Amino acid sequence: MVNAAMTHVPTTEAAPESTNVDPSVTAERPPPPPLPRVFAVANQKGGVGKTTTTINVGACLAELGYRTLVIDLDPQGNASTGLGVDHRGLETSMYHVIMHETPLENCVEPASIKNLFVAPASLELAGAEIELVAAFSRELRLRRAIDAVLDDYDYILIDCPPSLGLLTVNGLAAAREVMVPIQCEYYALEGLGQLLRNVDLVRRSLNPTLEVSVIVCVMYDARTKLSDQVVSEVREHFGDKVCRAVVPRTVRLSEAPSFGQPIITFDPSSRGSIAYRDVAKEVSRGATRRTR
Questions:
Q1: Are residues 253 and 263 in contact, defined by beta-carbon separation less than 8 angstroms?
Q2: Residue 212: beta bridge partners?
Q3: Which of 48, 84, 137, 278 could form a disulfide with 245 if both were Cys (CB 3.0 to 4.6 A apart)?
């Protein structure tokens, strides 16, 4: 938890202007895992930039030339609408994939960016939490669906709901890695301990290879020392799992989803675009694109 003394830090004191890369973090990272890679983007807290990170990291990976699929597993469907897919009135959505074992490829929609695809959510997913309780092999339905299309993509990002229900368990059971956005605020680590315990539970029960591999510091406010202190503490706890690039708090990042666009098309030169491009480069680590 962030040190209690931080509550006395003035929130208007200036901090360094450069927010994209921490120059103190210079250690070389290991080579990237082989493609394809499947990430569950998860955090037990709501409002931490989870969907924003899913959308924009996915878009930036696609821009780098990697064939990328964003799976919207949140009944609110924000990742779908943020990438320009209207989830109302869909004939096939992730609800049908989870509950009726419809092939995942049947609900995939192309996004406006080359190499980027979306498997949209629908409001029906809200009922899936209850319907799954009595379902056979309920925790592994998404894994089976992804396994059938795994060779079609370089990266798959699963936008999980903030609560630990059966949909999130499906996301964690299907993924190989977990990407965690952490906001640069006082209670940044509040939900992280619970998430790590849940990841460990899923690892022991359902998915032995699951690991938290990427942590992204988001909502960085360069006007406060508190943001710097949170980033420093996260780096101290998690080392090179934490991206060197940090994502600033900007109005443009908040506006982009209402236009159905990721930040790199909504405002390509903005600080948010630069930051998420840097995050995507760190995630990919220059992995060789697969030939198909």
A1: yes
A2: 178
A3: 278
156-191 pLDDT, tens digit each: 999 999 888 899 999 999 999 999 999 888 777 777
Q: Using CA atoms, how far apart are residues 280 and 276, in angstroms rounded to an integer?
A: 6
Q: What is the pTM of this model?
A: 0.87
Q: Encoding tokens for residue 260?
A: 């159905």
Find the helix or strand (DSSP H, E) in which 44 lies.
Answer: none
Cis preceding-peptide flag for 36 (omega within 30 of 0):
yes
235 CB-side CA count, 13 A: 19
Distance CA 43, CA 54 (A): 12
Residue type, 128: A
CB 226 within 8 A of CB 9: yes
Q: How far apart are CA 147 and CA 179, in angstroms?
A: 20
Residue 135 structure tokens: 């379902």
Structure tokens at 231: 């980033």
